[in-house]
Amino acid sequence: MVVKIRLARFGRTNSPFYNIVVAHARTARNNRPLEVIGTYDPIPKKDTYDNSGRLHKDIKLDMTRAKYWIGVGAQPTDTMWRLLSMVGILPPKYRPAASSTPTPSANASPQADQA
């Protein structure tokens, strides 16, 4: 069975709080996981700034267990890949940048380009 590292939502309405869990891919989001390896609080607190002066979002993660699960083949979701790359466990995924050159339109005739 495929094992995923994903977020399980807790907290109140408009105030989310997530557990970072390892669970089978086919189970529901808030079913009992195989293991809880951390927490993620996406709402920055008022007086918690990081080194660059931005508000700090709280990520608590058991690094050894996360590395173990990735080592045995657990697949992180896209959101978890981003969080794990912030912590330094995985390399960042880069999205291809949108090209700045316009593509030729389908209605343009080839004879107009030659003139």
Automatic annotation (TrEMBL):
InterPro entries: Ribosomal_bS16, Ribosomal_bS16_CS, Ribosomal_bS16_dom_sf. GO terms for cellular component: mitochondrial small ribosomal subunit. One of its GO terms (biological process) is mitochondrial translation. Residues 95-115 are annotated as: Disordered. PROSITE patterns: RIBOSOMAL_S16. Residues 96-115 have a biased composition (Low complexity). GO terms for molecular function: structural constituent of ribosome. It comes from the Eukaryota. Keywords: Ribonucleoprotein, Ribosomal protein. Belongs to the bacterial ribosomal protein bS16 family. This is Ribosomal protein S16 domain-containing protein. The lineage of its organism: Eukaryota, Fungi, Dikarya, Ascomycota, Pezizomycotina.
